[in-house]
Amino acid sequence: MKKLLITLALLFNLNSHGQVVQGVSSIIPGMGQSLNGNHWEGAAYFVSALGLMFAAKDPKLNTIGLNIAFYNMYDAWRDAGGKPSNKNSNIFHDYAQMFNPVNIIDPFAIGLLSAAAINRSNSRKTAFEEARKHNDHETIHRRLSTDGWKSILTFASVGMGEEALFRGFLFPAFSQAVGPWGGAITSSAIFAFAHKGANTEANIVRGALGMLFCWQYYRNKFNLNKNIFTHSWYDQILIGPFNIASQDPDEKFDWNKMPIGASFTFNF
Hints:
Elements: H1 2-12, H2 19-25, H3 31-35, H4 39-55, H5 59-79, H6 91-95, H7 107-134, H8 137-144, H9 148-193, H10 200-219, H11 225-239
Helix pairs in contact: 2-5, 4-5, 5-9, 7-11, 9-10, 9-11
């Protein structure tokens, strides 16, 4: 984590782009808001993000807490004058974008979600095979299963948090230092390698996907609405709910049970 902060500081050239200090400092949730003078908002981010990340017993709530922490870095950078960004949005508005059907009117959203739907069966098969290979069905069921409606609420936070951090904050902030292509490549590489347990092939795919999300963000004039919608539903369609089988191939978990999705390098 210290190496990451040092790297961010060097690339951002903090003397020239002072607003990035608030974004980077909000790696401790709420600190950037406090530096902006919004102490109550900072306290709300601190309590909600860390409380859900470390105090909640449910891994779904841990995931929501992590993505609140992600969003708070974008929020602090934006409120300090970071550009380009959507000054009229807030965490509640952005969280709700998964549920706004207007956001489907986007060629990238239609294409990516169609690809997710086509690959869903193969993804479910792969999950089943991996579970059997590692003989960890019980662990998957106990730690990563949830009801379908809770899945949607969880993935809404994932789309909001990841898009706010990697596209809303890191993409334009890096672009100030190394140009738009450099910003897209750097933020997408961080996005790819932020996922724990992925192999090289998976990281390359995620990096390419991150580049496409950068293009979508740019194409929509740096408005996160369609990014959040697309990312949230992509994860929901492709990842859950799976019909993960138990150790008895003929016995299957409830259809309404599902893995919550990606696991990050942040350990709870």
